[in-house]
Amino acid sequence: MTEALSPAPVRIRPEIAALPPYRQGKQAGADAFKLSSNENPFDPLPSVVEALQSATAVNRYPDASASRLRARLAARFGVSADAVHVAAGSVSILQQLALAAAGPGDELMYAWRSFEAYPGLAAVAGATAIAVPLAADGTHDLDAMAAAVTDRTRLILVCSPNNPTGPIVTQADFDAFLARVPGDCLVVLDEAYAEFVTDPAAVDGARVLAAGHQNVVVLRTFSKAYGLAGLRIGYGVGHPRILDAARTTGIPLSVTAAAEQAALASLDAEDELIARVAVITERRDRLAAGLHAQGWNVPDAQGNFVWLPTGELTVDVAPRFEDAGLIVRPFAGDGVRISVGEEESIATVLEVAASALSLLP
Ligand code: PMP
């Protein structure tokens, strides 16, 4: 469109002007399944709805530090409340930490392909992005990442399970990696999908922190397993002085009282949430097994999504899902990420995937 091509009427930092603006995945029509944003397909829990209805003091600013929620999360992790930071989605904390740790001349490293927001973080912070290719099986190549560390590396992002490919980083590999990273380099362990992990070998952020790694911040979110994506609330756990820096670069008062109330209600409803997660992981494993049986080389799926490695054929494969009423997330030249959603969507995903096999060489 000409609008996108014409220059801005004011001077924009060139590295920002070069970035594509965030565009949300397609919204689903009434008869389509939205499997493009790794959301939770279940309706909010009744206790969450109730908590939202009772959050009435909207004429007042919220508690800026979300102190009640921080206290609850701190108790779970066995840390002090100032070792927990709550923000409007874990993506906010990613940006706060990037701004705090990696400026111009510094390097910000991540595996690629991984969460789409990572490259933009480096650009916004003015740092240099170092993208280290994933191994062929969709796992982090932590050896290559450790080898790529320089004295300018200030922030390393490790995503487990990796969005969009699905595999975890093992505890053993993460420990070995940390041993090779200088202690003054911040390592963020992005565990947005931690609650869906069923592989016991997976890294566990709580364990990493308990082992005393002071340069690690663990990120979790209420958007996925807890089903609160629309309320925007996530958290980080780590050294209080690192989180103070995130609090400094963050916009104050972004977490609404309603979001905090709903997160507290979700923590109270832990049993129901664990049961829902079990339903999703069962669907995930069934879907992944079905795709494997068809001959797809699907990487180990440990989040609430599966990855179809369609490579150059992605642009041909993706419309087939849409035609069948499934909104999925294609990454051109690479693959298609399909969230694990409603039970009724599973059979259609498998049917479309089977038909798409004929397109492959
Ligand atoms: N990290 C990863 C790996 C993600 O996939 C996402 C969401 N897609 C986020 C962080 C951000 O989640 P939120 O801001 O909703 O907490």
UniProtKB/TrEMBL annotation:
Record domain Aminotransferase class I/classII large: where: 32-350
Modified residues (N6-(pyridoxal phosphate)lysine): K224
Any one GO molecular-function label of the UniProt entry: histidinol-phosphate transaminase activity
Catalytic activity reported: an aromatic L-alpha-amino acid + 2-oxoglutarate = an aromatic oxo-acid + L-glutamate
InterPro entries: Aminotrans_II_pyridoxalP_BS, Aminotransferase_I/II_large, ArAT, HisP_aminotrans, HistidinolP_aminotransfase, PyrdxlP-dep_Trfase, PyrdxlP-dep_Trfase_major, PyrdxlP-dep_Trfase_small
UniProt keyword annotation of Transferase present: yes
Cofactor: pyridoxal 5'-phosphate
Enzyme class: transferase
The enzyme's E.C. designation: 2.6.1.57
UniProt keywords, alphabetically: Aminotransferase, Pyridoxal phosphate, Transferase
SUPFAM superfamilies found in the cross-reference section: PLP-dependent transferases
PANTHER family referenced in this protein's UniProt entry, alphabetically: HISTIDINOL-PHOSPHATE AMINOTRANSFERASE, HISTIDINOL-PHOSPHATE AMINOTRANSFERASE 2
Subunit (UniProt): Homodimer.
Biological role: Aminotransferase that catalyzes the conversion of aromatic amino acids and 2-oxoglutarate into corresponding aromatic oxo acids and L-glutamate.
Family per similarity comment: Belongs to the class-II pyridoxal-phosphate-dependent aminotransferase family.
Protein name: Aromatic amino acid aminotransferase
